[in-house]
Amino acid sequence: MRLLIGQHIGLPYLLPLALEVLRENPMAEGHMYEGDLLSAVLTRNPSVWAEFPELSRELSEIVSKLAGLPPDLQQKVEHFLAP
Q1: CA 50 from chain center: how many Å?
Q2: Are 37 and 64 in contact (CB under 8 A)?
Q3: Which residues contact 40 (CB under 8 A, 6 or more apart)?
């Protein structure tokens, strides 16, 4: 799922599934490193989130509750949450 999301394939189908996983485990890993699914989701183009505002709000709720993230992932969260 991480790879397909990173390649912008099937986002209307995969983003809701990814958020289901992230709701349960925000640091879920897709065979690369802890939090790689979250990283793939967070780094989608802002235009993607404009198409899916409900998913964007849900992701904002998920990441706003996270603490103690690795610096690179924390930076991605901050970039996603920035207005």
Answers
A1: 14
A2: no
A3: 2, 3, 5, 6, 18, 30
pTM of the predicted model as reported, rounded to 2 decimal places: 0.91
Looking at residue 45, its amino acid is N
CA distance linking residue 11 with residue 1, whole number of Å: 10
Please, what is the angle between helix 53-64 and helix 11-24, to 10°?
A: 20
Question: For residue 33, how many C-alpha atoms fall within 13 Å in the half-sphere facing its CB?
Answer: 7
Q: How far apart are the C-alpha atoms of 82 and 75, rounded to whole Å?
A: 10
The predicted-structure confidence for 31-50, as pLDDT tens digits, reads as follows 778 899 999 999 999 999 99
Q: In angstroms, rounded to a whole number, what is the distance separating the alpha carbons of residues 76 and 25?
A: 17
Burial class (CB in 10 A: 0-12, 13-18, 19+), 13: exposed
